[in-house]
């Protein structure tokens, strides 16, 4: 769907996607805005450019909301209850229950709840990432979603992980990333 959209002469027209890329690319919104209302609005606005299906918007808003609430100090019980109530995601399964039957799933509804559960069951940033990877499936996207939430919840990415990740970026992208981190993620 994305390839068709990108090649289309009408590329500014959303393509009604509910793919998990909506949630994968939204973490910055959860860090950059100062109220839950702004986060929800900006997540919707940023997502609808491509992922205009309600499930795509929902996945992005849920992810950005968890990041915002986590960086404001919300605990895991609050995050779970909030997401279940606000976004109607079922977060009652455990990773052990999900793992045996989980397969590649490129939808928000088949990735975002699992990413949130990986955060909820984790002990630290690295454990959250390892937990998400352990599910298999679309693991790069799943861990990207989990990683943004874990960064906010645990107050940052451990230096040995962040430092190594920055080495993989070219100079321009490294500069933009460091500037964003310095501006919006001082405590996360």
Write up what this structure looks like.
The chain has 188 residues and is an all-alpha fold. It has twelve helices and no strands. The longest helix is centred in the N-terminal third of the chain and has 18 residues. The protein is globular, with a radius of gyration of 16 Å. The mean pLDDT is 94.
- The number of helical segments is 12
Radius of gyration, rounded?
Answer: 16 Å
- Relative helix content: 55-70%
Query: From the coordinates shown, what is the CATH architecture?
Result: Orthogonal Bundle
CATH C-level: Mainly Alpha
Write the layout of secondary structure elements.
Elements: H1 2-7, H2 21-24, H3 27-32, H4 36-47, H5 54-71, H6 76-87, H7 95-98, H8 112-121, H9 125-134, H10 139-154, H11 159-167, H12 171-184
Write a concise synopsis of the structure shown.
With 188 residues, the chain is mostly helical.
Please describe the structure with a list of short key phrases separated by commas or semicolons.
ADP-ribosylglycohydrolase fold, 12 helices, mainly alpha, 188 residues
